[in-house]
Design goal:
Distance between the termini: 90 Å
Order of helices and strands: HHHH
Structural class: mainly alpha
Helix content: over 70%
Strand content: under 5%
Radius of gyration: 27 Å
Length: 133
Amino acid sequence: MKKNFKAVEDTLNRLYDIQADHLASFDEQALPDLEQQSAERDIEVSRLIRNVDILVKQQQIETGAETESMLSFLNDRVTGLLDQNRVLEVKVKAVRDNIKNRMKQLSKGTSVIGSYRSSAAAAYTPKVISITN
């Protein structure tokens, strides 16, 4: 049981560190690689789910005060991770909204610049003279 608990605790610690690094990257970089960060977190979350499943199966076999305190500790740790994940979600949403707004502004700017062209300039195509004849 202690071995399984240690595996879950190690995975929780890695996930906490990964999320902390990803949160810090929003302050350090103009645009962090959101897909890569999401993939890294997904890998650790799947590892966490697998380790928790093993621990729960073991916990069903063993009961006692020590088991209860271990599960209480894990519950508190997971609650902290969920809070950290909510902060991360807010930052990711802000970055995505910012990109979306900038793309809209760029699109409007392109159409405004296009509207300043005269119809003669738009119809103008350069002529090529063949000098090989």
